[in-house]
TrEMBL record:
Cell wall formation. Its EC number is 6.3.2.4. Keywords: ATP-binding, Cell shape, Cell wall biogenesis/degradation, Cytoplasm, Ligase, Magnesium, Manganese, Metal-binding, Nucleotide-binding, Peptidoglycan synthesis. This is D-alanine--D-alanine ligase. It is an enzyme of class 6 (ligase). One of its GO terms (biological process) is regulation of cell shape. InterPro entries: ATP-grasp (IPR011761), ATP_grasp_subdomain_1 (IPR013815), D-Ala_lig_Van_CS (IPR000291), D_ala_D_ala (IPR005905), Dala_Dala_lig_C (IPR011095), Dala_Dala_lig_N (IPR011127), PreATP-grasp_dom_sf (IPR016185). GO terms for cellular component: cytosol. Binds 2 magnesium or manganese ions per subunit. PROSITE patterns: ATP_GRASP, DALA_DALA_LIGASE_1, DALA_DALA_LIGASE_2. Mg(2+) 1 binds at D273, E286.
Length: 324
C-alpha cells in the first residue's frame, strides 16, 4: 500500500504510512501538508510504474500500480474528474466510474435519472445564483409553491451535508440560499419528507449487484443529519444497523437501492439514502458513490451487520475495480 495525499493546492505528494496523522475529530480535521515530494503518475500506453520526485530532486520508482483506491470526498474526488483522470492513465481504480460519480455529485441530474427509472424522489426546484440575483421574488414564489414546510436547501454539487439548511419558515429561505450559494452557484430547494431515514449499502460483486441489510439514522436532537453527525460522532444522532424493519420492508428497500444504483450506471459501490414514510412509500434522497468509511459510517456498519467484514469489504471493492 502506497499512501498518496493531495494538498489543498492540488499537488500529489507521497505520504508516510501513518494513519494517526489524519485524525477525524472536531478539534483537528485532517489535512495533507505539502512535504515537497511530487508523485509522477504513469503515462498512458507505458508501464504502470509509480514514481516520486523527492524534496531533494531525486526520482525514485515505487513499483507498479495494481489498483488505486480513491478515498476522496467532494469536488475532484467523487464527481468523476479524478475517475476520468485514471481512465486516461489506463490505471485501474476502485469505486464509482465517471458517469455515476458525475451524476450523483449533481443532485439535480441524479434526481432526473432516478425519476426516469420510475423511482420516487422528493419534489424540488433547481435555482442558479444568476436567477436568484435577477429575480429573487420568483424564486421565493417557486419555493412557496413546492408544498408544505419544512424545505431543505442544498448546494447541487457538494457533499457531506456542507451548505445544507432546513427551512422551517419561509423567512429563513434567503439565509439558507446564501449559505448554499457560498458552496455552489447551483442550488436545490426540495420538500422535506416526513419519514424514517433509511440507508442501504450497495456492492458490485463478482456475482452481480447486491444490497446489505438496511440501516437507520435516528435523530434524537439534531434537525437533520449534518457533517458533525456524519463524521465527528456528534451528539443527537444514532446510526443503527440493522434497522428494525419487516421482511417486506427490507426487500422493498434493497430492491429500490439496487434499482437506484443501476439507474445511474453504478460501479463498485454506493450508499443509497431514502425515506420510509408512514404509508410505506420509499422516497430516495440521494446516492453517494464513495460513502464514508469511518468506524461510525453507515456503509461499513451495514455490511458488517450483513456478515461481511471490513477487510473482506475492501477486498471486494478492489476485486470489482480489477474486473473493469
Amino acid at each position: 500500500m502506497i499512501p498518496v495525499g493531495i494538498t489543498r493546492e492540488g499537488a500529489f505528494v507521497l505520504e508516510d504510512d501513518d494513519p494517526a496523522k489524519f485524525p477525524l475529530d472536531a478539534a483537528h480535521l485532517p489535512e495533507v501538508v505539502d512535504n515537497g515530494s511530487r508523485i509522477l503518475w504513469p503515462e498512458p500506453g507505458g508501464d504502470r510504474t509509480l514514481r516520486v520526485v523527492r524534496a531533494d530532486g531525486t526520482v525514485e520508482g515505487l513499483g507498479e500500480i495494481d489498483i488505486v483506491l480513491p478515498i476522496l470526498h467532494g469536488t475532484h474526488g467523487e464527481d468523476g474528474t479524478i475517475q476520468g483522470y485514471f481512465d486516461t492513465l489506463e490505471v485501474p481504480y476502485a469505486g464509482g466510474g465517471v458517469l455515476d460519480s458525475a451524476l450523483c455529485m449533481d443532485k439535480h441530474f441524479m434526481k432526473v435519472a432516478l425519476q426516469a427509472a420510475g423511482i420516487t424522489v422528493a419534489p424540488w426546484v433547481t435555482v442558479w445564483a444568476r436567477q436568484w440575483d435577477a429575480d429573487a421574488a420568483s424564486v421565493r414564489a417557486a419555493a412557496d409553491a413546492l408544498g408544505p414546510l419544512p424545505l431543505f436547501v442544498k448546494p447541487a454539487r457538494a457533499g457531506s451535508s456542507v451548505g445544507v439548511s432546513k427551512v422551517s419558515e419561509l423567512s429563513e429561505l434567503d439565509a439558507a440560499l446564501a449559505l448554499a450559494f457560498a458552496e455552489d452557484d447551483k442550488v436545490l430547494i426540495e420538500i422535506g419528507v416526513a419519514g424514517r431515514e433509511i440507508e442501504v449499502a450497495i456492492l458490485e460483486g463478482a456475482d452481480g449487484v447486491r444490497a446489505s441489510l438496511p440501516g437507520e439514522i435516528v435523530l434524537t436532537s439534531r434537525g437533520f443529519y449534518d457533517f458533525e453527525g456524519k463524521y465527528l460522532g456528534g451528539d443527537g444522532v444514532d446510526v443503527v444497523c440493522p434497522a428494525e424493519l419487516t421482511d417486506a420492508e427490507i426487500d422493498a428497500i434493497q430492491n429500490v437501492g439496487i434499482r437506484s444504483f443501476e439507474a445511474v450506471d453504478g460501479r463498485g459501490l454506493a450508499r443509497v439514502d431514502m425515506f420510509l414514510t408512514a404509508s410505506g412509500e420509499l422516497v430516495v434522497n440521494e446516492l453517494n458513490t464513495m460513502p464514508g468509511f469511518t468506524p461510525i459510517s453507515m456503509f461499513p456498519k451495514c455490511w458488517v451487520a450483513s456478515g461481511l467484514s471490513y477487510g473482506d469489504l475492501i477486498s471486494e471493492l478492489i476485486e470489482a475495480g480489477l474486473r473493469r
